[in-house]
Amino acid sequence: MNRNDIRIGLFGFGVVGQGLHTVLERTPGLRARIGRIGVKDRSKTRSLPPELFTFERDEVLDDPALNVIVELIDDADEAYRIVTGALRRGKAVVTTNKKMLAEHLQELIELQRQTGTPLLYEAAACASLPVIRNLEEYYDTDLLDAVEGIINGSTNYILTAMHRDAVTFAAALARAQELGFAESNPALDVEGLDARNKLVLLLAHALGLVARPEDILTVGITGISELASSYAREKGLVIKLVAEARRLPDGGVAAAVLPTLLRPEHELARVHDEYNGLITQSLFTDRQFFLGRGAGAVPTASAVLSDLSALTYGYRYEYKKLQQQSARALAPAAAEVDVLVTFGQGHAPERADFSRIHEYFHSEQQGYYLTGTIGLARLAAAAWLRQPGISVVRLPQPLRAAQAAPVASAAEVEAADCPA
Ligand SMILES: NC(=O)c1ccc[n+]([C@@H]2O[C@H](COP(=O)([O-])OP(=O)(O)OC[C@H]3O[C@@H](n4cnc5c(N)ncnc54)[C@H](OP(=O)(O)O)[C@@H]3O)[C@@H](O)[C@H]2O)c1
Description:
With 420 residues, this protein is of the alpha/beta class.
């Protein structure tokens, strides 16, 4: 594809689609024009001439005048049909749809190999932050040990508004939606699923592991209790939704998305509003930190633009870490995590699930909490994890390889003090 002759078949003209149009108008270095736009709703008034729009997928995919497909819709199933249809037709694709990518990543990698056609998706992980290509290229020979980040702009916007500005959850979510940060289905954001989908992409490019999204322990921000928030305030900590993947000494990988207590000096504690932050940890470079806007029309479109530019010099992902087979598999049974669990009378976590209980507290006004160490697989399987009235937040320590539990440590905490 020639830098002076990019002819885009665009799908979606919502927040990001319109952002792309704006960005292209202001980018003199790239001669790209939108030739056709596939959308869904026939009743909407559009800001561009009506003849540009179509409601038929194949009219865009089969148009020989278009040499790249940019997929920016909010329907993952239709996005899958568009992206696979384009790759099978030999048309390069740029997409932002992390849900679709995470659900079909292995197949899409195979399809790129079979067709020899590139699929780029820088904006799908952390929007404007240039992480995927950096993980692929800059770190191609450096074995990464971990990635840890705030990778969902809406939940970070909501948590910032609630804790810094004392706005209610509902008002903060509504504002995130107004500003175009939130997914059309807000559950994807607030239940942590969007962060989980992005973590699947980071796992592939950072650690060489294609994981199924449903295999990653994911807890969102809707259940964070008032007691957990006041625990954070009292200890001078902040709660953020953190996605983490860490290589264990035996080559397995621990990965989770959890609300997490952070010390104020932690890089991620200073990531506010819709910003994202990603820390890479590696043997040679130690800790590095990416910071930037993780949502919004123009920041997201800027990453799409960068992918379009990359296509003009023949760029494609080689999935170098996958070829190096640097990580073996998700190994939640070999990992453990320190957590704060808050609960009320009649909603208690199972004490036997913990390998160590560090602290136990009861207040008449606020309820109960305990802090303890629990295996990642145990936590994921715990029926009490999803019970209303129980809230789980990770303590500041990173995920790590499971230690042998000290004998009877959980039982050492006076069982009589804990509600059953
Ligand atoms: N917003 C962000 O900050 C951000 C950041 C990173 C990634 N993303 C991703 O970017 C994608 C688009 O997000 P957005 O915020 O731009 O969404 P949006 O504002 O809701 O726009 C969605 C667009 O998709 C079109 N669409 C939906 N279903 C379709 C179908 N079956 N066929 C054709 N068109 C269809 C809609 O058409 P109509 O116009 O006819 O309704 C609309 O133009 C999503 O995958 C999202 O996860 C968004």
